[in-house]
Amino acid sequence: MPRPYDLSSMTALICFEAAARNASFKKAAEEMNVTPAAVSHQIKALETDLGCNLFVRRSRGVELTEKGAFLFLAIQRGFETISEAVTQTRDRQETVDVTIRTTTAVSSLWLTPKISAFWKIHPAITVSQIVSDVPGTTGRCDLSIHYGSPQDNGVEYRQLFQDRIVALGTPAFAAQYGISRVEDLLQAPLIHMSNEENGWTTWADWFLALGRPLPKGRNFYVNNYMIALQAAQDDVGAVLGWDGLVEGLMREGRLVPLVADSVPSPVPFHLKIHPKATSKARLFAHWLVNAA
Fold first, then answer.
1. Alpha helices in 152-191 (DSSP H)
2. Average of pLDDT values for 247-274?
3. What does R_g of the chain's alpha carbons equal in angstroms?
4. Hey, which residues does 44 pair with through a beta bridge?
5. At residue 126, does pLDDT exceed 50?
6. Which bin fits 115, alpha (ψ -120 to 50), beta or left (φ > 0)?
7. Under DSSP, is residue 37 helix (H, G, I), strand (E, B) or coil?
8. How far apart are CA 228 and CA 60, in angstroms?
9. pLDDT for the residue numbered 197
10. 3-state secondary structure 215-245
């Protein structure tokens, strides 16, 4: 019988998603409890099946090709939908104490390290994440993290942090385009988020806040902030960065401020405490706010 879905091996797709999310075959292997060779074998088989390269292999890790990035975003959306359905189906009270929802970027860059630190203090409390970049939905969860001004609708929330927004790129990119002032960025390639309905500050907002006109350089659009950061590391263009969110990348020198100017984030990242949040969820919420 013909298959109802045009899918490659699910094992290969799962390996690919883990490797793309971690930008590393080794980290994907550790996450899946297999060898890096097994991950590499699965991804090679997937590339053969699709007839294209999904990664550029480098000594310091791997980077997605354009087709790889396209496939990663599609798989990620599918896995998010499946993950949410599984979370809503299982009796989470027997297995998970706290469920928190956030975006891919906040999860990877900020929340996951915080959860690891929380577990060292409260090892008996299990915390589950629902990671989704689809705005406007929260699903079944105790807590959720949002970027924007909280609505005055009686819902309980706590402010986490409110960053400064800086223009980021690599030193090589700055040298290539001679960037040292804000005016230099007006003609330089810029990386934009195409799903601006999530309310994140745009390049137009950033230049306007600094009293500058709209940029006229080349534009590169993506709908995932982690891909935008990776593209900036690959010298595709400059990207906007929330300094508290991307602190690790700046500390490692993978991205650096291109100019001295920055603007305050117009709205904070805040934690929404849902009405049915458990006592353990409130304990985690209190700890997370203090950790922020």
1. 171-177, 182-185
2. 92
3. 20
4. none
5. yes
6. alpha
7. helix
8. 19
9. 47
10. CCCCEEEECCHHHHHHHHHCCCCEEEEECCC
Residue of 96, 73, 76 whose CA lies nearest to 88: 96
User: What would the two tokens of residue 140 be?
Assistant: 């079944």
User: How far is the C-alpha of 204 from the C-alpha of 267, rounded, in Å?
Assistant: 16
- Provide the 8-state DSSP code for 18: H
pLDDT tens digits for range 142-180: 999 988 877 766 679 999 988 899 999 999 999 999 999
What average pLDDT does range 255-267 have in this prediction? 94
Taking alpha carbons only, the member of 145, 63, 149, 137 closest to residue 107 is 145
Say how many residues make up the chain: 292
Q: Tell me what pLDDT residue 4 has.
A: 67
Neighbour count for residue 157 (Cβ, 10 Å)? 16
Q: Each residue of 92-121: pLDDT tens digit?
A: 455 688 999 998 889 989 999 999 999 999
Tokens 């891909």 correspond to what residue? 227
* Vertex 242 angle, CA 105 and 72, to 5°: 25
Q: Token pair for residue 222?
A: 């993506």
CA–CA gap between residue 226 and residue 222 (Å, rounded): 9
Confirm if 69 and 229 have CB atoms less than 8 A apart.
Answer: no
- In 3D space, the residue among 124, 132, 130 whose CA is nearest the CA of residue 143 turns out to be 130
Q: In this predicted structure, what is the pLDDT of residue 150? A: 77
Class of residue 160 by CB neighbours under 10 A (exposed 0-12, middle 13-18, buried 19+): buried
Alpha helices by DSSP H, 2-35: 10-22, 25-32
99-to-84, 124, 127, 137 alpha-carbon distances in Å: 11, 15, 6, 14
CB-based burial label for 75 (10 Å; 0-12, 13-18, 19+): middle
- HSE, CB side, 13 Å, CA atoms: give it for residue 191: 24
Cβ contacts of 198 within 8 Å, gap of 6 or more: 103, 133, 135, 147
In the chain, count of helices (H) and strands (E)? Answer: 13, 12
